[in-house]
Task: inverse folding
């Protein structure tokens, strides 16, 4: 495990002690800003066939890591031996001060950035909070075995959160909560503490297919089934090479991720703005102009995106994505000048997408 105590672990608590411990852990989690917390066992046998089928259909695209970990994703005790329980948490991320997502999408000269990525990198925020929770447990009860996850390892986050009672899997494959919608991150603590488990909740998508209908690239191929190879989030973030030609016009002005399935979801009318200051909008990323960010130098990109999840894709991929956005933007002198400035870019993929974008505008 990533954290092993230097002295013997605390003795296993009895049922009454474990119940009291679970109550305390949930109180501490809420004090740290988590909007929800639940506890589940490690049995994901009901979710494993779906994972294997998804991989067999190659829906994971270039994300080889999704397949190479084998059953570790659906068998937590194989990933972290000794794991008895998973503590699952929700952390709201929708910034209260962000420009309305639909308005940004409706302006083809703007760069749409997924609402989760406009502030500080959530991996760091989530990991820090989970570590604080584990430290509190240790300081109160003594050393125990644990490992924290923040979208950082082969973990079936949604399946675990669903089992832990934090919501239900929507037809877009994201977790939905009746009172909070879906604008939240998930995080986990794998532990050897034999805590009492929580009951799952019920699903409430009903006959609604709004997320399937709105998806720009029809990546949600069936309820609860996503073909990542068509998903704009995958194409703009995970996919490193050339974006398929047929999908480029469908991407519109989405340069980092896509939120359409969440924006349309009726449950998100109940979403609560985040109280986490780290997720506040930085650098005007909620409504920046495509042309403006296409002119950033690499040094400017690194400075503006330092500490952001966007930093991870790198400068060339950022330019590639914006080039597609500019190809889909209305023809203007500003757009054409921006594209012409990158015709001889040192990166071959950037040049290729710039040339495609130029060809979308009549001479």
Result:
């Amino acid at each position: 495990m990533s954290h092993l105590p230097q002295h013997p672990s605390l003795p296993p608590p009895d049922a009454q002690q474990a119940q009291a411990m679970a109550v305390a852990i949930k109180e501490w989690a809420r004090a740290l800003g988590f909007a929800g917390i639940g506890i589940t066992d490690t049995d994901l046998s009901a979710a494993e066939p779906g994972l294997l089928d998804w991989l067999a259909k190659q829906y994971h695209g270039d994300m080889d890591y999704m397949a190479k970990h084998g059953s570790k994703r659906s068998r937590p005790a194989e990933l972290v031996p000794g794991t008895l329980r998973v503590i699952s948490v929700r952390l709201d991320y929708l910034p209260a001060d962000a420009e309305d997502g639909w308005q940004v999408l409706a302006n083809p000269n703007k760069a749409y950035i997924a609402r989760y990525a406009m502030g500080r990198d959530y991996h760091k925020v989530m990991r820090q909070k989970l570590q604080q929770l584990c430290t509190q447990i240790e300081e109160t009860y003594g050393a125990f075995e644990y490992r924290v996850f923040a979208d950082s390892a082969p973990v079936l986050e949604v399946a675990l959160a669903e089992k832990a009672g934090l919501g239900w899997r929507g037809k877009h494959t994201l977790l939905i909560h009746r009172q909070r919608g879906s604008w939240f991150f998930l995080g986990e603590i794998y532990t050897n503490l034999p805590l009492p488990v929580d009951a799952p909740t019920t699903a409430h998508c009903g006959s609604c297919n709004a997320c399937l209908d709105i998806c720009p690239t029809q990546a949600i191929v069936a309820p609860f089934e996503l073909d990542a190879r068509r998903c704009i989030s995958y194409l703009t973030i995970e996919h490193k090479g050339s974006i398929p030609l047929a999908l480029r016009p469908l991407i519109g002005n989405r340069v980092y991720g896509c939120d359409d399935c969440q924006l349309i979801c009726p449950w998100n009318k109940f979403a609560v703005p985040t109280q986490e200051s780290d997720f506040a909008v930085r650098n005007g990323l909620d409504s920046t102009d495509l042309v403006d960010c296409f002119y950033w130098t690499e040094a400017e990109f690194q400075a503006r995106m330092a500490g952001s999840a966007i930093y991870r894709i790198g400068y060339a991929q950022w330019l590639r994505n914006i080039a597609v956005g500019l190809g889909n933007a209305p023809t203007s002198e500003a757009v054409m000048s921006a594209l012409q400035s990158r015709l001889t870019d040192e990166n071959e993929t950037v040049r290729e997408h710039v040339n495609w974008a130029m060809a979308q505008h009549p001479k």
